[in-house]
What we know:
Blueprint: H1 2-19, E1 21-28, E2 32-35, E3 38-41, E4 47-49, E5 53-56, E6 61-66, E7 71-75, E8 79-82, H2 83-102, E9 119-121, H3 127-132, E10 139-141, H4 143-154, E11 168-173, E12 179-184, E13 191-199, E14 205-208, E15 218-220, E16 225-230, E17 238-245, H5 251-263, E18 277-281
Antiparallel strand pairs: 1-4, 1-6, 2-3, 2-5, 5-8, 6-7, 9-10, 11-12, 12-16, 13-14, 13-15, 13-17, 17-18
Amino acid sequence: MIQRILFTLCLAIVSFTAGAHYTLHSVSGDVKVESGGKTVSAAKGMTVKAIDYIIIPKGGKVEILNGLDKRIYTSITPGRISVTRLMIDARGAASDNAKNVASRMNLGRKSPNDSKNVYVEKGMVRRSLAVYDPEGEMMEMDAETLGKYVAARLNDTAGIATDTCPVNLTSTHLQDGGLAFKLENTLGFPVYFNVLRVKKGEKPTVEISQLGQPAGSYVVLPRQTISREHFPTLDPAETHLVVITNCQYDVDKVIEEITKALENKNDLDGSARDLPVYIDYL
């Protein structure tokens, strides 16, 4: 009886996997799809199954959208490969990219001991970011880890007095009480940053700065500069700090984690001093 139940369960899992459907998000080159013994030209929006095969020519590229996890899986490897294998290999490449991303911006610091706690695999990516940063397109910094680190810095428990900023960052206090900054990326890879405003007190508050980017993070390519000015008078009781990292991060989630850590002092991670994160005040 137990064997029959297990057989039925395994059959159901196999049937589900075989019957799962995915969508070709984009196609470059003369990519083919082999399904049910027939081979047809691949096209954006085409539905494929896990047991179908993708034939990628030299110089070709295919992106598959998995409707279950909302992720896009990319392959540029020439040859014949099953949809399932393509997605497995793409996830492996994302893991390798985490190592590549972790190797960035370790100027004057050690690499994180456990990158699994620092980086997480992002959901569906945007093509525009893939063009900007192919290695980092699928990775983002873990919001809890980054939030606790920033909170510890704000609470002066991280043991680091100041950062030597790896890029050129300058700020100017404007005549009417406003603020401006300019960041020049002098590194050989993209940098990500955002600007937060902090009001210290019995209960410190952290919000997005008027100079920040509320959707995602600023991304600056090598040998690029970015500047922003805010002319209205700012609250003199608030300070504005730049959080620079080697990959993207969700600023809303990070702010939530900073707030939680500041409220619960036990969550302040004062030992997290080897993260590839740089903080500077404007």
